[in-house]
Each structure stands twice: as C-alpha cells, then as structure tokens.
Amino acid sequence: MIIAAQYRRRLLILIVLVALGSALARPRPTSEGVPLGEQQTVESAHPLVCVHTLLENEVQEAKIKRSLQLTRELGATTIVQFFPWAYSEPERGRYEWFHADRIVRHARRQGLRIIARLGLVPAWARPSGSETPTTLNYLPKESFEDFARYAAAFAQRYRDAIHAIIIWNEPNLSFEWGYRPVDPAAYVRLLRASHDQIKAENPDLQVVAGALAPTLEKPGSAAGLNEIDYLSAMYLAGAGPTFDALAIHTYGFRDPPAAEPAPARLNFRRAELLREVMIAHGDAEKPVYVTEFGWNDHPRWTHAVRPSQRSAYTIEAFEYVEANWDWVSNLCIWALRYPADLLSYPDNFTLISADFTKKPIYFALQEYARGWGRSEHPWLPPPRAG
After folding, report:
1. Cis link prior to 335 (omega < 30° from 0)?
2. What are the distances in angstroms from CA 377 to CA 103, 343, 363, 364?
3. pTM for this entry
4. What is the tens place of the pLDDT at every residue in 88-121?
5. CATH number (domain holding residue 308)
C-alpha cells in the first residue's frame, strides 16, 4: 500500500538487521533441534481462512513452531510465507535451504498448506559499482533468468510441500520495484521466465501473479500505479498464459466489508474491480488468492477502526466472501505476528504480539474458523437481516 510506505521502509531495515545478525551467528544444520511433534490436522469449518505468517526473519526455531501451532489452533488451513531469494542463494548457484527447510518442515507437521512468496534480490544479482546503491527489491532485467532459476529450484525442492508460488510482491509500487518507475511489461517478462522454469520442474504447481497493492496512483506517478490499470497493462503485455492464479491485496481501511467498490476508493471490495479485469480478458476460470487483507485498530492511526469494529469487520469479510466470491480460493489476513514489535501502527494488524499474546481479533477469528458458533461477545454483530 502507498499509505504504508514508511512502515515498509522500517520493516526493510528490520529485515536487514535481522539478516546480518543471523549471518553472524547462524546455527549450522544438525540432526538436533526443536522436536517436530506428532503430525497434526487442522480443525476448520471454513477452509477459506488463511494467514500471512512472516517467519522469514524469525531466528529461533521454537518460535517458528509456536507460530505455526497457533495458526493451526486458530483454524487456518493455509499460510502465505515469504521465502527470500537473498537468504537462499547468497552466491550464484550456491543454495542454503536451512531456514526455509525448517519453516516448511514445521508447517507440514502442523497440517498447513503453504503458499510461497518469492522475492528479495541478493547482492550478486544487483548492479555493482553504481553511484546510487540499489535496494533489495531492485531486480535488473539481466537477472530475470537468475530469479527464474531460483524459483524453479525452490519448486523442485519443495514439490510435495508447496501448493502455489507467488512471483514477486506488489510490483505496482515503486518501492517494491527497487524505487524505479513501475513497469508492467517488465514484470510480465519476469513472470513468463519464472512460469516456464517452474513448470518444467513441477507442472502441477500453481504460478501466482500479482500480489498487487491497493493504491490510487495514476499513470506517471513516481510512487506507483493503481492495481486496476496495472493489471490491464499486464494483460496487454501478454500476461494471460504466464500465470495460473492472481494474488490480490485488499484492505478495508475505515469502510465495512460490504461497502461498494469504486475506482477512486480503497476498500475491501475493490478486489471485485480486479476480477472484472480478469473476466474482460478471458480469465474468469482462474482462481484468486487474497493474500493480504484486514483492518487496523491502532488508536492514533487515521485509517484505523475501533477494536470491536476490527473483529466484526474481519468476520463479516469472511462471510461476504463465502457468500459472494466463489472465485476466491483463500482469504489471508495480514498478519499473524511480527518477530519484533515495530512500536507503530503496523503492530495493530497482527493477531498475536511478538511475545505471543493473543489479541481479541485472534479469538474472534478462531471462533469463526473452527465453527464454534456466534456468541454474545460484544465484538460480534447480530446477523444481518435477509
């Protein structure tokens, strides 16, 4: 989201610091570690429920396991998890899968489906010697095939564990495209290269495009391009055959989930406008993953709602999607937990705090996901008439 650019910069700094600390004291792969425990099965009355887990910067394996246990206990069937390229291929052709392995291992033992998101460029794949240093989101066209090769290696290694792979994140934002003007045609070239190599390794794996950010930016903006125009431009560049499903980010901000969508408004049902673009280009049969959504209840953020509204709106959103969006495979809330509290409004997107304290939204969503029935809790509104 454009509105969250300051947060994303802060989170990127946190990622770099954690990565540096992890590199200095990285535990070596051994046969010892946190016990996996018995094979688990998710008890869920609503398989649509999914969470974004953010375990890529969690150093302690016990906390990875605990996060995934709480995800299963929530009743979520599926996670979206980021697997940074920069972490797994620090040198061209030399892979280090240790951290990714243990995330996948614990997720599978908890009975969770995994949607993997790939991105974050290692230093060797970015320009060197430039007067302007590049960011971890800067992927030059000369490295598209290198990224595709990593995606294929990832698909091959986890062929029995990963359900789908998302290629990149929010390429319609300049920040996520390396602080460059966004380029739908270039993203399609990256998508095509990745699709072809992934399918050569695992034809059954879903290649997911987009993960497009909700924004109102117009053509020519230095910050990005609204996701409706961006998706249309992707199709004009020949994106149709290069992906099996589309990932969408759609936040509610201060609107209730049933509020009508409009091109000039950011709200939950804005996803329907992207679906119209898909239909117009003959992709009505392709599924959609909503890989980020939610409301925020920070007391001092201008786009936040009250805690009781956050819980109510979240449950209503799941009910709305189940009743009206048969094209959505999973609705994934942002986010389960950050490895460290950010001490700002993004903390109020999480379901549990960094110290694993469950928030009211966790209990509200758990009651829904596991089918325990509506109660008299104040955060659950009465059923709508009709």
Report:
1. yes
2. 35, 28, 11, 9
3. 0.90
4. 999 999 999 999 999 999 999 999 999 999 999 9
5. 3.20.20.80
pLDDT at 309: 98
Q: Do 172 and 225 form a contact (C-beta atoms < 8 A)?
A: yes
In one-letter notation, the amino acid at residue 354 is A
pLDDT digits (tens, 9 = 90+) for 45-60: 999 999 999 999 999 9
pLDDT in tens, 210-231: 999 999 999 999 999 999 999 9
341 vs 233, 270, 346, CA distance in Å? 37, 29, 9
CB atoms within 10 A of CB 280: 11
Could you tell me how far CA 343 lies from the centroid of its own chain?
A: 21
pLDDT on residue 150 = 98
Tokens of 330: 């999973």
Does a structural domain hold residue 12?
no
What is the spatial distance between Cα 216 and Cα 118, in angstroms, rounded to a whole number? Answer: 25
Would you say residue 271 lies in a domain? yes
H helices within the chain, ranges in order?
5-24, 61-74, 85-88, 98-109, 144-157, 184-201, 227-236, 271-280, 307-324, 360-369
Alpha-carbon gap, residue 232 to 288, rounded angstroms: 16
Domain presence at residue 206: yes
Number of domains making up the chain: 1
Assigned domain for 382 exists: no
Q: Tens of pLDDT along 158-188?
A: 999 999 999 999 999 999 999 999 999 999 9
Whole domain around residue 133: which residue ranges?
A: 38-369
